[in-house]
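# nightly structure sweep
# worker-07 picked up a monomer target from the shared queue
# config: single-sequence mode, recycle default, output format = structure tokens
# input follows
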Amino acid sequence: MENIIADEPMSIGPNSTIYTTRAKLIIKSHFIAGPNLTIITGDHHYMVGKFIDQVKDEDKLPENDQDIVIEEDVWCGANVTIMKGVTIGRGSIVAAGAVVTKSCSPYSIIGGVPAKFIKKKFTEEQIREHERILYSR
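# output follows
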């Protein structure tokens, strides 16, 4: 758990799995996720001349493990998977079943496998008003 930095309030649904490798998971406040969220900060390294189960942790390259950052006010639906190196921008929504392999900008709605930008959550005017109300204190 030392690789997980999380602010409250937050809510993660049941049956969720979080694997942190050499990288960190940073979750900012007001994060909610449905059931079966999966977050993985690293992947396997593969090498010529070795079976995958023979590759050891010390064989990994720096790019095999990368931090994940989930900014504040993010909502992930059920069965979302978030992969290494991703930043999910403030105020974003990740559709149920999405596999997030690339970062998204604030107030994005993303979905699919792999997840792609669908639309903005608010208009630019609404984003300014939302930010003024919540962050200008």
